[in-house]
Design brief:
Blueprint (H helix, E strand, L loop, with lengths): L4 H4 L4 H7 L4 E6 L2 E13 L26 E6 L3 E8 L6 E12 L1 H8 L11 H8 L15 E4 L9 E4 L16 E4 L9
Antiparallel strand pairs: 1-2, 1-6, 2-5, 2-8, 3-4, 4-5, 7-8
This protein binds a DNA duplex (12 and 12 nucleotides) through strand 3, strand 4 and helix 4.
DNA sequence: TACGTGATCACG
DNA sequence: GTGATCACGTAA
């Protein structure tokens, strides 16, 4: 079952970040399906300095200012595409970054995209998982219940297994870098920094 | 630890 | 226009 708009729209990004653990991200590119279970997320709010939306609307972040339930994909360091889920209401620019997946469907195609044969750590990081699933800038701004990129109900994750920690790679955000808004499934080997 | 890589953003 | 910066990954 695909998650509906109500899962994202009007919802706090921290709550959605936790709720997304265990859910499955699917892509269907040129008819080929790949999917992975979300094992690591980070919440971003326009109210704090780590967010792209902190300084207001720009060409890059404009989809964050729309209603929840669409993707926000952008190019990072000129090389990596990063995939976010927009949450909350229009005008409240909140989002959740997907940082790691556990491969579930179409592993052979993911290996091909990653140019490796070993099914290890190929989706353990925000830049890698988009490459493995074929997500790129053209998916930016698309609702997450369409036919090329979507999210489905997955495995239930008990609250006890959800671990909070500080977000990665945002030292520039000063004290906001300390917010415990990174969520991982404790013990899962596919998280980005074990 | 160092650096590739290119769009983006805040300046003028 | 231009230059600094960057929600990363890999090699070393």
């Amino acid at each position: 079952m695909k998650l509906e708009e109500s899962f994202y729209a009007g919802k706090d990004p921290v709550k959605v970040a936790k709720a997304l653990l265990g859910k499955f991200i699917f892509t269907r590119i040129r008819g080929k399906v790949t999917a992975g279970m979300i094992v690591e997320t980070e919440a971003y709010s326009y109210r704090e300095r780590a967010s792209h939306a902190y300084r207001g609307k720009t060409k890059r972040n404009r989809v964050m200012f729309g209603a929840g339930g669409v993707s926000y994909v952008y190019l990072c360091y000129g090389i990596h595409h990063l995939f976010n889920v927009v949450t909350n209401d229009a005008g409240i620019a909140d989002a959740v970054l997907i940082r790691a997946l556990e491969p579930k469907i179409g592993e052979d195609l993911m290996l091909k995209r990653m140019k490796t044969k070993k099914l290890t750590r190929i989706t353990s990081g925000p830049g890698k998982l988009t490459k493995a699933l074929g997500i790129n800038i053209k998916h930016n701004g698309k609702p997450l219940w369409e036919d090329e990129l979507w999210i489905e109900e997955g495995l239930p994750i008990s609250k006890k297994k959800i671990k909070a920690s500080a977000r990665i790679g945002i030292d520039y955000a000063g004290s906001d870098a300390l917010l415990p808004w990174r969520f991982t499934i404790e013990g899962n080997v596919w998280v980005s920094k074990p």
